[in-house]
Amino acid sequence: MINPTLYPEVNSLLQELLTGVQTILGSQFTGMYLDGSLASGDFDQDSDIDFIVVTEDELSDDLFLALKAMHDRIAAMDSPFAIQLEGTYISRQGIRRYDPLHALDANIERGNGERLKKVHHDAAWVTHCYVLRDRGITLSGPAPQTLIDPVSPDNLRQAMLEVLDGWVTQMSLEPDQLKFRGYQSYIVLSLCRILYTLRYGTVVSKATAARWAQETLGETWVPLIERTWAGRHNPGLEASPEDVNGTMAFIRFFLERSRQDKFIK
Fold this sequence. Notes:
alpha+beta; Beta Polymerase, domain 2
């Protein structure tokens, strides 16, 4: 029995996942790892459970369908964590370094009704590679440092600038997506992490980035970030108009300052 976390129910779920993955993949299994808040030490009962499975080659259609059925079964388990799994299946070649031309992988997001699907990872995947290589938790398989090339501070900054030009810019045009507290909180806390990475060329948890942002970005944003952190505990509630407007203002602030290199050393 594996015990990678302080939560017995999470450990049981991860054991179920690992056993299922190894059984389905057989000789295609290379390793399974935890990243995200579990690896950073800031996991709590409102966090997602971030995992990465490395395979020898890209998944065949049969293996993809078998894994999809497994995740459907796990999601129906009687556990509050069963729908909190968020992870990616990626080949040895794909995990070595981020290549936008070869970034279509199997992925599952947290939440009710989520299913395994094929997604194209954007530049933000570089941060997953960094966290996994730097502090990932190995459940089975070789050390992640043997699978992933080093990720430099400039690699991280460049990736965040690409996220800025894509996802963040698009968000500035779509305030309706901020209606519910879960996504509104995700946006604000993600921006805090992006700003931290642009400044320091490293990756920290949402909690650490939120504290830094409150101390660094000025009193204007302190109440918004405080309400956002509290709001992540109730993701299904509607965000207040004040916080939707505040989040849009924070996005505009972020875009303006980062494009002027205000957050980059």
